[in-house]
Amino acid sequence: MTTVTWTSDEIMTVTAARSLEDHMSCFVGIGLPSTAANVARRTHAPGLWMVYESGTLGTVPDHLPLSIGDGILADTADTVVSVPEVFNYWLQAGRIDVGFLGAAQIDRYANINTTVIGDYHSPEVRLPGAGGAPEIAASCREVIVIMRHSSRAFVDQVDFVTSVGHGRGKGDRERLGLRGAGPTRVITDLGVLEPDPGTGELVLTGVHPGVEIAQVTEATGWDLRTAENVIGTPAPTDTELSVVRSLTGAR
Amino acid sequence: MTTVTWTSDEIMTVTAARSLEDHMSCFVGIGLPSTAANVARRTHAPGLWMVYESGTLGTVPDHLPLSIGDGILADTADTVVSVPEVFNYWLQAGRIDVGFLGAAQIDRYANINTTVIGDYHSPEVRLPGAGGAPEIAASCREVIVIMRHSSRAFVDQVDFVTSVGHGRGKGDRERLGLRGAGPTRVITDLGVLEPDPGTGELVLTGVHPGVEIAQVTEATGWDLRTAENVIGTPAPTDTELSVVRSLTGAR
Amino acid sequence: MVLPLDEAVRTLVHDGDTVALEGFTHLIPVAAGHEIIRQGLRDLTLVRMTPDIVYDQLIGAGCARKLVFSWGGNPGVGSLHRFRDAVTHGWPLPLQIEEHSHAGMTNRYVAGASGLPFAILRGYSGTDLVGNNPNISTVTCPFSGQEVAAVPAVDPDVTVIHAQRADRSGNVQLWGITGIQKEAALAAERVLVTVEEVVETLDPVPGQVLLPGRIVDAVSVVPGGAAPSYAHGYYERDNSAYKAWDEIGRDREAFNAWLEEQIGAPAAGAT
Amino acid sequence: MVLPLDEAVRTLVHDGDTVALEGFTHLIPVAAGHEIIRQGLRDLTLVRMTPDIVYDQLIGAGCARKLVFSWGGNPGVGSLHRFRDAVTHGWPLPLQIEEHSHAGMTNRYVAGASGLPFAILRGYSGTDLVGNNPNISTVTCPFSGQEVAAVPAVDPDVTVIHAQRADRSGNVQLWGITGIQKEAALAAERVLVTVEEVVETLDPVPGQVLLPGRIVDAVSVVPGGAAPSYAHGYYERDNSAYKAWDEIGRDREAFNAWLEEQIGAPAAGAT
Fold first, then answer.
1. CA-based R_g, chain C, Å
2. Which is catalytic among the residues A53, A135, A194, A201?
3. Which of B16, B125, C87, D83 could form a disulfide bond with B36, CB atoms 3.0-4.6 angstroms apart?
4. Average of per-residue pLDDT across C1-28
5. A213-246 pLDDT per residue, tens
6. Cis peptide before C51 (omega within 30 of 0)
7. What is the DSSP letter of B123?
8. Over pLDDT 70: what percentage of chain C?
9. Is the minimum CB–CB distance between A88 and chain C shorter than 8 Å?
10. Do chain A and C touch: 3 or more Cβ pairs under 8 angstroms?
């Protein structure tokens, strides 16, 4: 008999990876999104078409890049295009199925902040800023957000809207001319949140094995609603775990 | 003792070639302009940087191309760029010193017609159209027009303004936001016309050997003014003629 | 993905479509144009920066309702007589025209490839193209107050190009003068590529454009499919064919004979 | 054309200039940045899509008055502490910031390279970037009525890039991830390129960008000039140096020691 154990980052990564279907095109941010996309490609989605904002289209790195522009991404890509091309001809043109994003703060309506904590003009914490995120959130057919759960990160309203999720609710994306569906899942180390189809508000739809719903609501900075059926995330398989660990260098 | 003779096309080509200085960048149209630019490069301007609208930058063809996109242009270029790049990054950005253009009709103010003879909606003769000319005429630092002289071609007012020369006179280019100086010379098989610095109207400033001023005014469809000093074009040298002939395949 | 040309054209091109066959002097998809004539497609809006002899043939055969272009001629030779006949005499059918400059058409394709409704450029100012084409307008820079030209995106239903090579996944590789093909393909709803050959592996070539297979709907293997234009590294431009076209294109009967004998298509109209 | 780096910087970069050092993760012109610090240039408006450790160093050394950017961080490691210190505490000097998205900055460079006053894109809509940056606006499509974002061109006084190779005429060749370097160079008034080597002949390389010598003002041979970033085909990214910077950058004294010891520049301000 085998006892499989895993870290909370590992189940978050595996759950995110499972959200990707084979042959999808995926705009990959660095960090957790990159790990998850590469896990998907090595498990159930070998035809996943990964695009990094450095212009590497259809890249198949044999190890995780540290940055969005590592040499391995260029060496293994179908083609490398310029930065204007990847943003204008690929992202803006609506050719990308899924954007995989991380965030420092996310709010009730899945708006994302990667700019500042506190006031913009005299910030408490200055974060890196927008990067590709605003247009990834606008133009990909859908967006999946991957971030660790905490009440500092999951807030009622973000301090700065770097990238629009569902604005102040249903209909805002259309009003703003944003063509993709926006964030359809937020995957954390505790579970999964999805926008309520009627209101756009994030509700808890899944928890990872061993996680109590109360833990999640506790770690959320607004009064988190819970779906009628909260699904238990299937445990990572041996294969998934070994792929994650081979990529991250753990164990 | 040698008697040098030449055709009217040959002295036109040689005179046009002499208008180019070494190391200039030149946007080259096909036909007479292409021959003239290639003569310049093989005589006094070996560093002439020729750009064809097909995207070949710094090309040094070993024979005259028949079209603006012959393989020889790509094979011998410093680099080949896409058509958007040659028009946006090179021509529009104002990086080209001289535009070398031909025309079907030109008028008193050096406006150029390559679109239709007669009414646009029921043309007498349908010509190829604009191609690169409107923006070559707008954006090159200066423009040199090369065309055979005739009263059908040199008209008081063109039937259709495909490319703006000096509009309806001095100041029009500035008013229209055209940044280059516009046509500074029109070189024909009879002589040379240049815009009057005060009015922008083309006046006769040069005649080729053996050409009478009356012949030129006769072949011009408006009341052509003559500069105070009409210069006689120096005869083509043996070297120039042999280069022209080696390129055009004549004798 | 890899289909015979007749099947690819039947699947991807329909009556009434807006169709762009691109290739700037180099790699012109002539064989695909001939297949469009052979299949008797009608009412097409034909888009091309430089309509040359294959467009003269499509127009002469009566495939086109409208031509959107910036320079129409037989390069290095002279005029397009079928095009002229359609414009001036409506033979075999009247032809609407929408006329731009190269800079304008280029940026229309760039806007199409970029998913933008329009493009801006410095162009057209002072020309008579402006008054004769409602698809040329201006916008004002919100920062400097400068006025620049605006043209709408071109979004073809189908773009057809010819390339040197493809692999079995439909990745397409072309090099030499690459023109506007990348943008024309990315601007289109559907993409058909004829190629000189399908290879196992697309070894990188300096100056190449690689179109990922996911934007290509069909690849058809048609060696020589760009003739009489050329395919860099494969064959040269057949200048004599361009010159010979002048005589055929000049005459309705000679053209109809060409249609029947060379293309296997019916004559185009009463001469 | 080929000049020692100190002379090239002295000739081309002046106090108060708008300076872009570009290179998207790859080929970052770090050695040139250090030379700018060493020469004590002041009051620069620094432009860069992805300011990372060399911009942290320039800002920490007090070279910059303003930063124009879209993502500022130590890639794969964390934050830029000198940048944070300048923004939140004005050390050693207050730093104005103008913040865009990557798509916006990219198109600002494209507009600069194209000689246009502005660029349009689908972007920014609904974000708080809009209200905090007067250089983000909108224009309306004159054909469809759709509103799109507008950003002004960026036209640096000087762009500095690093490339693999140049020839003696100043033609520059770079490959691998080519990022925004072509546009950044074409947008600038003056261009300085550091290279791994000068060669007699630039043999074509697949995926290359070639910048013609006529747009390049100076080439300086600086082998390793992109380290700790990398030069495709020459050396790898030194990830440990990025990680090590975190500790140095965190502390004003450690940073000043680094300035004095590694760069030979004076300490930046009272710690």
1. 18
2. A53
3. B16
4. 97
5. 999 999 999 999 999 999 999 999 999 999 999 9
6. no
7. E
8. 100
9. yes
10. yes
Q: How many CB pairs under 8 A join C and D?
A: 69
Q: Which residue of A has its CA nearest to C171?
A: A78
Annotated catalytic sites of B, by residue?
A: 53
Query: Dihedral, CA atoms, B227, B230, B231, B232, nearest 10 degrees?
Result: 150
Using CA of residue A44, residue A49, residue A55, residue A59, what is the dihedral sign?
positive
Kindly report the number of other CB atoms within 10 A of residue B29's CB atom.
Answer: 23
3-state DSSP assignment of residue B234: coil
* CB-based contact B25 D114, cutoff 8 Å: no
In the numeric block, the tokens 């990872």 are attached to A208
Distance CA C180, CA C26 (A): 11
Contact C103 B134 (CB under 8 A): yes
Who contacts B211 (Cβ-Cβ below 8 Å, separation ≥6)? B190, B191
Distance from CA of C132 to the nearest CA of B (A): 8
pLDDT tens string A168-221? 999 999 999 999 999 999 999 999 999 999 999 999 999 999 999 999 999 999
Q: Which of D26, D127, D132 sits opposite A134 (nearest CB)?
A: D127
pLDDT value for D269:
83
- Do the Cβ atoms of C215 and A95 come within 8 Å? yes
Residue type, A230: V
Minimum CA–CA partner of B89 in chain D = D114
Task: With beta carbons less than 8 A apart as the criterion, state whether B114 and B133 touch.
Answer: yes
Classify the complex by whether its ipTM is higher than 0.95, answering yes or no. yes
**pLDDT of B3 over the 70 cut:** no
CA nearest to C118, candidates C128, C130, C131, C104: C104
Give the other-Cβ count within 10 Å of A5's Cβ: 8
Going by pLDDT thresholds of 50, 70 and 90, the confidence category of residue B160 is very high
Torsion, Cα C86 C92 C98 C103, to 10 degrees, reads -70
Q: Which residues of chain D does B92 touch, with a Cβ-Cβ cutoff of 8 Å?
A: 114-116
Q: Does B30 touch chain C (CB under 8 A)?
A: yes
Tens digit of pLDDT for each residue in B28-55? 988 889 999 999 999 999 999 999 999 9
pTM, two decimal places: 0.97
Strand, helix or coil for residue D173? strand
Q: Read off the amino acid at residue C45.
A: T
**Other beta carbons less than 10 A from residue D176's beta carbon:** 26
**C-alpha distance from A61 to closest chain D C-alpha (Å):** 14
Would you place residue A1 in the very low, low, confident or very high pLDDT band (cuts 50, 70, 90)?
very low
Give the chains touching D; criterion: ≥3 Cβ pairs < 8 Å. A, B, C
